[in-house]
């Protein structure tokens, strides 16, 4: 039981990191139907920005997260403006290839400047390294920070999407861009805003991963990026609560497989779950089956 | 007469390519480095044209071609390391291709019911699963991979398998099966309404593509004699897809041209090791922004000379395909080009 609770805590921390990345994927997909492969790289850059804030400017963890979020927001909006906007009217495949190209570009540009070797994250303040035990379950305070920040950001996101005017515009554009435009919503600005929010969350996730795994490198975005996307698809892509459920399921499955001693099969299990759910429910867990009109 | 002409359409260019390269090898113009590049091009052509059958001609976005390639490569490697001589090699390549096709069939059956991006991510996941298995099996030697695979591929074998792939696909696309595939690409609902079993068409093309990817993988294993699971990751699938998209969806000659162009480009970029991937990805983005239909669109290179020699017959390739990429600057083949 203790073992189970212990793993549950681990799963929760991993799941909340995936959730932060998955939210960006799912929002962007919901609004322009594009798998933004560069999202994983935005998260990687967030991790590096956090690293520099802490090691070069000697600022704290929360400042690092804030800095990463700001830089990633700018980057996300810039990528959308430069690479995706010109392609909005062309085929899905062309945009997809562009996204992949952007992802490679960011990876290798980063590698050119910082080298391919993994780096250790700067030492954390003591309160982050503390751990305490609750009835035999060891909880690290950094895990609490990760879960806390993730939950906070998700609540913030929910608030933005559900109650603000911009959130309303986002939902309108994702339902029907043309109708939204006719209602006086600036589609371009709404899409930029979506990229901004998604990228900010990814930036925060980057720093949290740096803290959690204590190692960052320019190629770190590929696998978590793919898995977060899997999480988004699992829950029904474009649906925000779906992404959360998916992220925790994926995080849980991964932790469970590792705990059972099959950590080499971890990635395989994640994708097997994805294929299984898609076969049973092709639009994801919460997705609605939209009838195709002729 | 039509059949003969159709055969000549591929026989002449293939024969010419074979003869020219053979002559160059005899004269000694092609050194080892050039030869290795050429082998890579040939393998990439096999992989890209087979993927084009799924993505370009059937319109199903599959991101897992590297998985089938890995199955072919490992099967071929394992067999050639145990069965000596050319028999082992041929057996290995064929067994790899058949195994890849079987896996493709089994995976395709459920997965191909998905559409668009869901299919893409499911096939991507499938390729990752294949890689994870290879990574953890004893016979594949896990993450360390296999090395010392006997090298049997020479220009003759390579050309034989390349020609086999191209000729098969060429005729397949022009057969009733191919027309059905194109119908599914153009409008799945309409295709279904006129009685095409769309799932069957998709699974069929997917299986065939997996088969040829298996052949490509086998040749890769035999020529490069070292295999590691990490070679067949997500990036490899993307590499192949990039060739297909760059060449033009639904254009076999486009895939061939793109495979050659990219190989030349990467040879040229090899002198800027650090910047190579940056330039490559930048070009990718720029090409997609300024020419999203790829080099060829969905047209084929037609040999003008042949057309004149063998009279005026409509090119079946041009009849087949209004471009899948509907954009304003895309030229629809005019009558002059068609003749």
Helices and strands in order:
The complex is a heterodimer of chains A (294) and B (339).
Chain A: H1 2-32, H2 39-55, H3 61-84, H4 92-114, E1 119-120, H5 126-129, E2 131-134, E3 137-140, H6 141-163, H7 165-175, H8 177-182, H9 187-213, E4 215-216, H10 222-235, H11 240-259, H12 266-280
Antiparallel strand pairs in A: 1-4, 2-3
Chain B: H1 2-27, H2 32-57, H3 65-80, H4 85-111, H5 116-136, E1 146-147, H6 155-173, H7 176-186, H8 188-193, H9 198-224, E2 226-227, H10 234-247, H11 252-269, H12 276-290, H13 304-309, H14 316-320, H15 335-338
Antiparallel strand pairs in B: 1-2
Mean pLDDT of chain A: 87
Order of strands in the sheet with the most strands of chain B? 1-2
Q: Supply Rg of chain A.
A: 19 Å
Strand content of chain A: under 5%
| Architecture (CATH level 2) name of chain B | Orthogonal Bundle
Number of strands of chain B: 2
Helix/strand/pairing class of chain A, anyone? Answer: mainly alpha
The level of helicity of chain B is: over 70%
The string of secondary-structure elements of chain A, in order, is HHHHEHEEHHHHEHHH
Oligomer description = heterodimer
Number of domains of chain B: 1
What fold name stands as the CATH topology of chain B?
A: ABC transporter involved in vitamin B12 uptake, BtuC
Low-confidence stretches of chain B: 305-339
Helix percent band of chain A: over 70%
Report on the biggest sheet of chain B.
2 strands, antiparallel
Secondary structural class of chain B:
mainly alpha
